[in-house]
Amino acid sequence: MATMTVFAFVLLYLCYFQNVTGVTEREVVDMLLTGYQKEGRPVQDPTQAVVTSLDVFLIQIVKLVPQRQVLIVNLWLLQRWKDDFLSWNPAEHGNISSIRLGINKIWRARLVHYNRQHEEGWSKTPDTNAIVRSNGEVLWAYPITIHSTCVLDIVNFPFDVQRCPLKFGSWTYDASSLKLLNVSVRGNMDEFIENGEWTLMSFDLEVNHVEYSCCPGVLWDDMTYTITIKRRSKFYVLYFVSPSVLMAFMAVCGFWLPPDSGERMFICINAFLSMIVLQQVANKHLPGTATTIPLINRFMGVGILLVFASSALTILTLSLLFKTFDLQPVPKWLRRIFCLGSPDPNIIRLAPEVSPKKVDANVLEVTELEDMDATFATDRAKATSQLVRRARKVLLQLKEEYDMMSRYEKIQKEWKIVAGKIDRCLLIAFFIALVVISGAIFGPSG
Ligand SMILES: *[C@@H]1O[C@H](CO)[C@@H](O)[C@H](O)[C@H]1NC(C)=O
Ligand SMILES: *[C@@H]1O[C@H](CO)[C@@H](O)[C@H](O)[C@H]1NC(C)=O
């Protein structure tokens, strides 16, 4: 069976060759490459420049690596030039009008990507075939993945637009020996595959003639394509911006809670920690530069400050609320600010330094009882009067203590009202501050 198959194949092969008469492609290639020198420029007149046209197809944006500031793209490069030493007459060569030649066998312009950032170095061009036409026209297309340096502008992160240039040109041929030609006004986007993270806005082209400081008076052609991409910010809004906005609002809303419930500090500290964690995670998507502060970090920074301030002010109101040591009446200026009205006369009448514990029965003077003493003559009456005196003394003392306590409670109650009012004011102030700051930071960029 196997020998039969081999036999059949040999038969087919022979039949195939029997049918082909005349010139094979190999003969054309032999004819072209015999004596071909791939290093000299392929022009009959050495004073003329080789005209190389370049077309760049943007196929895919693979990734933008923020830490390395590198854009990785897949491109198809299409170069076209005329090689005077690669032409033949098809009529004399079996009507073969075009052949394929390995690019390493013929001359090429060796255009380089100036701003590439590969670890392996400069030359990593796939050795694909070039199509050679009988009139000497060479068409060479190849796919390539390029790591191109791209200085990121992260001020508006996550609503940023990045412009990444790709500069192509010859490294050794100046404009007098190699002329670069564009085939269109902008880069080719026909084969573009959409990217999940970036929206392609434009793929522009600029043809430059540059004089470098190395070689005065010599111009060099280059073609600079610029990829403009806009970040799809939905992901970042969903996972970073909205949680941090909500977190800041929650910390502000904490002022709505009664301060003595103890929940408020809990909310503040939780919001504080969450914001810091969110900021750390968001920073993973940014290059480690300190020249500009991105939008999201500015907002988070302000949010963290707000949360911190609200924690600090919570401590203040709590300290007002549970004020027991050295309790003073609410000062006049605070009363005026919070419209507490005039203070209770009881609070004013007694010296503020006196605290309830200091009240001593011995201090009290009961003068009218002394006057009554004289009118009682008998021992019994004396004893009775003494009893009455004691009783009144005790009663007076009790009344005094009661006054003290009620005054103390009134002062405390007033402080509580002040604390509550401060809370309301802070709630409104922080709320306005948050809205204004959010608007100022996110408003202009959308
Ligand atoms: C080449 O093509 C011409 C016209 O198409 C034809 O007359 C001629 O026979 C062809 N030559 C060969 C070798 O096939
Ligand atoms: C090449 O680019 C220039 C602008 O840089 C433009 O004016 C010209 O039309 C382009 N050539 C072609 C063939 O589109």
From TrEMBL:
Gene Ontology cellular-component annotations: membrane
CDD domains: LGIC_ECD_nAChR (cd18997), LGIC_TM_cation (cd19051)
Any matching Pfam family: Neur_chan_LBD
Transmembrane intervals: 236-257, 302-322, 425-443
SUPFAM superfamilies, per the entry: Neurotransmitter-gated ion-channel transmembrane pore, Nicotinic receptor ligand binding domain-like
InterPro entries: Neur_chan_lig-bd, Neur_chan_lig-bd_sf, Neur_channel, Neuro-gated_channel_TM_sf, Neuro_actylchol_rec, Neurotrans-gated_channel_TM, Neurotransmitter_ion_chnl_CS
Keywords: Ion channel, Ion transport, Membrane, Signal, Transmembrane, Transmembrane helix, Transport
Record has Transmembrane as a keyword: yes
GO MF annotations in UniProt: extracellular ligand-gated monoatomic ion channel activity; transmembrane signaling receptor activity
Ranges for domain Neurotransmitter-gated ion-channel ligand-binding: 26-232
Cell location: Membrane
Signal peptide (UniProt feature, chain positions): 1-22
Membrane topology per record: Multi-pass membrane protein
Domain Neurotransmitter-gated ion-channel transmembrane: 242-344
Annotated family: Belongs to the ligand-gated ion channel (TC 1.A.9) family.
Name recorded for this polypeptide: CHRNA9 protein
Originating species: Branchiostoma lanceolatum (Common lancelet)
Organism taxonomic ancestry: Eukaryota, Metazoa, Chordata, Cephalochordata, Leptocardii
Underlying gene: CHRNA9
